[in-house]
Specification:
Two copies of one chain form a homodimer. By secondary structure, the first copy, chain A, is of the alpha/beta class. The first copy, chain A, has 24 helices and 31 strands. Chain A has five domains: about 80 residues, Dna Ligase, domain 1; about 110 residues, 2-Layer Sandwich (D-amino Acid Aminotransferase, Chain A, domain 1), CATH 3.30.470.20; about 130 residues, Rossmann fold (3-Layer(aba) Sandwich); about 150 residues, 3-Layer(aba) Sandwich (Rossmann fold), CATH 3.40.50; about 160 residues, Succinyl-CoA synthetase domains (Rossmann fold, 3-Layer(aba) Sandwich), CATH 3.40.50. In chain A, the strands form six sheets. In chain A, strands 1, 6, 7, 8, 9, 10 and 11 form a seven-stranded antiparallel sheet that branches. In chain A, strands 20-19-22-21-23-24-25 form a seven-stranded mixed sheet, sandwiched between helices. At the A-B interface, α5, α13, α16, α19 and β27 of A face α5, α13, α16, α19 and β27 of B.
């Protein structure tokens, strides 16, 4: 039946269709439309009304008018033959005045009272149909109380959508009202989702309202569809093998320069500084020695084929070099130069050449317009970024995939400076060949990976991105995403500065939620949250014990816990008694637990307090909020927290308010012991909430 | 008339009153209640119904039932005598079953259709009646679309409340519907506000719904009040003179110890380290020399009376010392010790003694339970906090009033470490005498003050706090507030750890909004925002130019600008042409303006770009977002930004993503030139939004 709809849709010209045309188009599906009988005269209208029984509704239907009610084309509650007759004539008059040639008048029975919902979809350029369901009528427009899911949407999914609405209590029985039976509505959602996938020519559908009657029967009172030509999406190839790119045994740097400020020189220096252990070959047309290593004048001079070639040449020369790599059968190439798709028509032509050079070959391409690839596990820093210069690479289960080199470099520099690590990270550049989804899928399969951070502008293939997220979830690898272009303003900025396909913020939000990825709201919180997800035990629930040296900071943290949907724990009597025995007499045992600065003076108190609250069965995770604990005190307190956390299977997070320079050693100690230190309580609580909601990790990794 | 209501309310016993009792109580006010005629039989009900005209409503009214409809005590749309008669008997049956002795049945005419609003108040323990108005009916409970204002509420205020609702379009004419005339409703709001102030015995009032008819007529369809005994609020004395506390010419430190770890020793050391220029006297019973200064054995040994005495003794001894100060006529005393009101019954008794010691005297008391008072303007650091040790005090127009010493010390340490200053700051402790409102009022009057930050748990006197905020606004001094205890969870934490009166989060939110104070949402953003408000030119509007070295970071910032209700600027053609001439060929001229890292290489480019965008008449403020600009490049770029900002009357804010250690010199240069550097774009945009919404400063200060 959907095939019939599709055939009909293909014959239509693009544009919006009103109720009558939508009814005609969707007729093969037998949707529960309210009956509507076209009439050609007032007398006929009266006769039909008598058949239906009074009162009735008369409408004038035309594709030219979007809001029929606003245009006076709907006459409700017509209770007598005279009223019907008069209404018919008024409608004819109005459509004549509007000059709507396609208009026809229909008679409908008045629908019984019920709850009005909206159901429909909007087709997103990246992810396809996003199904929308929610409260209908005027309120939907003001309160936007709708749930969104990318199709397919099952009946269970639809139930979940309805449960997520703010107006959900209206459906489940509010204030003594009878609950609304939504079973048939959820089935209708699933059918509509199928239709959306089967008929790509329909870019939008609105069934609004769908009235749900007391017995659960659904009646569609109005409908609207939009027809758009289908643009064929180029299918992407299968996921490439990225082993040579991320774990190369040998690397050649084309464009290795003697000028230390050139990218080629920096890449070579970075590889050496961070201790790449494999073969390393500078390639320089002049030969000789570069960066202390013997250079070859061309790739073909090398005794074997290197696993990875770093092409540090300007755009045009880089394309030529990539062709050489393909000829030689090089498994992996990174093109660093900008000046491709992001740089106008000439650059786009060059990028097409680049894409063609690797198409169908065994060569995988990272970039162009990337700052490179770094793996702490493999001690490989193939990057010209100076943001990590001087910092040792630290192994970590956290990976980073970034669509902005500058952002990635900055965020990684913070992690390294603060004592945290990133396992593998890549900046994807223009994603000419290998894209975000490929890296995501690859990182998910590595045994070293515990969590993945993604700085995302847009993906070329929504389906593959979604499948990669889904695979990560299945494998127990939590993914944290910072997505730009979530608002109109941001979206414009994305498309103006790169070739990325931003999709709509709402569609990304829906996909990330559906696949249990964490959408991070502060840019600089991305790696913080990803690291916490990858390096902290998963709590069994959301009951938080707050241990603090300041009542004020504790109270602020309590607010945040409430706002993030977590709860303060209630200590067991025994825990409370043990705490009272440990703490100074003036301390008040409660959650938040304010041990005061004095409470940290006696050796062992902090350790014992954290042990006690972590040991309480009513506590799922511990948040420690420190204020002006500085210098040697900082180290002493940090060690006690780390000792207590090390002996507990529950997560312990720390927020430390004093300036970093005063407590640097304490903070470094905690980082070294695998405990995250946040400088703002709101960020700590956001990470705690992410931990609580993240999918359970693979059992082999706990 | 309100006097009659009050007299009646005083005779009532505490508890909730339903519609009937509320009508009786409020009768003297002549509120537009829908008519309701009590009836004693079915026949009488029919007769009354005939008088009103069918259809009618029958209700059984009783104070015992909160939700009449849920209990089946409302019968709507009774169109015939038989229906009225049957409904009457059903209602009698139900109230008999409920055993509601006070129940009476009333007949009401059916109200005409209209828009249902809610109007009422809740009495907040701190601020008194908070008037609530919004959309009525079931939706109000689910969407909580209500506006709140602390009384008095004028008719203009009421109009503003209605305009602030999400459902406001329903009132102003949505989707072709006629607008609702809300003039009479706003007048009703003002009358209700007067009533709330005049009758303190009424702790709650609900007129729900108030139906607003097409012609603007208001009909109150249901009402409920709650009567509570009035607790007399102790009036606070008039604002004390704080000059001696903040600008003392001489200071004595009682409890100055030779043990450097004791508070008394630290206070003395802090005063000396930060260069207090007045007389300084250690007081120690053993006499001799303390901290390199000759000590006296008691205050009475001093040749004159010091302006300020710092009492660094344990609680009990401190009370004794304060009595000495009062006897000697010391103008100002700080009591540092804890162990007072926050420490159980014994502490509360001690605090009562302390309060009694200074009551009626000329001595002003800061604390107890405070870390002290610091003034950079007066080079006085009367504190035992080690958070500022080693940092030079920096003069600044920003003041801080904090209800938590630990939080204040931590936040100030960050400001000083990052190169910013705080002019005067005080931690108020238990506010035994001088409270937050006093400090706020005093700081507002100082010529040195440009902005005030407040870390707030609660105030003892809501009215005085509000007047102090109002005075600040009038004098053009913006106030930024971080309030704890905004949620249930946080509120519990506040009252458990100190004697503070938290009030409800919503009442504080309403007061802060009414007085144009900025409510800060991240604890560590408090001083950041306050400093920005005090040290940055005020923009004329909310059109932001974003200049960035990273497209990705620019796009993220664009999202934030949209989310905060600001707008990206549209450059004039001339600006765009000038920018194109300055920037590398590949750069795309747009807002956000991505100049790329390469765009910072040529000397003068950054300066020229910032000058050009700041010079565009369509730009109100400039936000610069830097990524991995580090080392010498950082200083070079920072200098150019500072030079450009210095030549413009428009605010320039900077967000810098790379780790501080890599760009420390550049960040310090900007701080030294009065430009705020944020480490997270979201915090920068929050500060920008605060700048845009802050009241205009006094003209003498621009």
């Amino acid at each position: 039946m959907t095939a019939d709809v599709r055939a009909a849709a293909r014959r239509l010209k693009p544009g919006g269709l009103g109720e009558a045309s939508a009814r005609d188009l969707l007729a093969p599906l037998d949707l529960p439309f309210v009956p509507a009988t076209p009439v050609r005269s007032a007398d006929e209208a009266v006769a039909v009304a008598r058949d239906f029984g009074f009162p009735v509704v008369l409408k004038a239907l035309t594709d030219d008018v979007l809001h029929k009610s606003d245009a006076g084309l709907v006459e409700l509650g017509l209770a007598t033959a005279d009223a019907v007759s008069a209404a018919h004539d008024r409608l004819v008059e109005r459509v004549t005045a509007l000059g709507a040639a396609d208009a026809r008048v229909v008679v409908q029975p008045m629908a019984q009272p019920g709850t009005d919902l909206i159901l429909g979809w909007v087709r997103d350029p990246t992810f396809g149909p996003v199904v929308v369901a929610g409260l209908g009528g005027v309120t939907v427009e003001l309160f936007r109380d709708v749930a969104r899911r990318v199709a397919p949407v099952t009946v269970d999914d639809a139930d979940e959508m309805l449960r997520s609405l703010r107006c959900a209590p209206l459906l489940t029985g509010f204030r003594g009202a009878a609950p609304v039976d939504t079973e048939q509505f959820s089935e209708l959602v699933a059918r509509v989702s199928e239709l959306a996938l089967a008929v790509p020519e329909l870019s939008e559908l609105d069934l609004n309202p769908v009235r749900v009657l007391a017995d659960g029967t659904c009646v569609v009172l109005d409908a609207r569809v939009v027809v758009e030509p289908v643009t064929a999406v180029e299918p992407r190839g299968s996921a490439p093998d990225l082993t040579a790119l991320l774990r190369p045994r040998s690397i050649a740097v084309v464009g290795a320069s003697r000028d230390a400020t050139r990218p080629g020189a920096r890449i070579l220096a970075s590889l050496r500084e961070h201790g790449f252990a494999g073969e390393l070959h500078p390639v320089n047309p002049a030969g000789g020695e570069v960066g202390g290593l013997p250079a070859v004048t061309s790739l073909s001079e090398l005794p074997g084929v290197p696993d990875l070639v770093c092409v540090a040449l300007p755009a045009k020369a880089a394309v030529e070099s990539v062709r050489d790599c393909v000829r030689l059968g090089v498994p992996a190439v990174i093109v660093f130069a900008s000046g491709f798709g992001e740089a106008g028509a000439a650059g786009q032509a060059l990028e097409a050449e680049l894409r063609a050079a690797v198409a169908g070959s065994a060569t995988t391409l990272c970039g162009p317009n990337t700052i490179g690839v770094v793996s702490a596990h493999h001690r490989m820093a193939a990057t010209f970024s100076q943001a990590i210069t001087g910092f040792p690479l630290r192994e970590s289960g956290t990976c980073l995939i970034a669509q902005s080199g500058a952002v990635a470099g900055s965020l990684v520099s913070r992690e390294l400076a603060d004592g945290y690590g990133i396992g593998d990270w890549v900046t994807v550049g223009n994603q000419s060949q290998v894209d975000v989804a490929d890296y995501l899928e690859h990182f998910t399969t590595l045994d070293t990976t515990r969590s993945i951070a993604v700085f995302l502008e847009g993906v070329p293939d929504g389906d593959r991105f979604r499948r990669a997220l889904s695979a990560a979830r299945t494998r127990g690898v939590p993914v944290a995403v910072f997505k730009t272009g979530v608002t109109e303003a941001g979206r414009r900025a994305v498309s103006s500065h790169s070739g990325a396909l931003a999709g709509s913020g709402e569609a990304y939000r829906a996909v990330l939620a559906q696949e249990s990825a964490v959408q991070v709201t502060e840019l600089t919180g991305l790696l913080e949250i990803a690291w916490t997800l990858g390096n902290t035990p998963r709590p069994a629930g959301g009951r938080v014990a707050v241990v603090t040296t300041s009542g004020g900071a504790g109270s602020a943290t309590a607010d945040l816990i409430d706002q993030h949907g977590l709860a303060l724990a209630a200590f067991e009597e025994r825990t409370a008694a043990d705490l009272a025995a440990v703490l100074p007499a003036f301390a008040h045992v409660d959650d938040p637990l304010d041990i005061t600065a004095e409470g940290t003076f006696a050796e062992g108190t902090v350790r014992r307090v954290v042990e006690l609250v972590a040991g309480d069965p009513g506590v799922d995770l511990v948040c420690v909020v420190l204020t002006s604990i500085a210098g040697e005190d900082a180290v002493r307190v940090a060690r006690q927290i780390a000792d207590a956390a090390g002996g507990s299977p529950k997560p312990v997070l720390v927020s430390w308010l004093v300036t970093r320079s005063l407590a640097a050693d304490g903070m470094a100690l905690l980082a070294g012991r695998g405990i995250r230190v946040f400088t703002e309580p709101a960020r700590m609580v956001a990470a705690a909430a992410a931990l609580v909601s993240a999918p359970q990790p693979r059992s082999t990794r706990v």
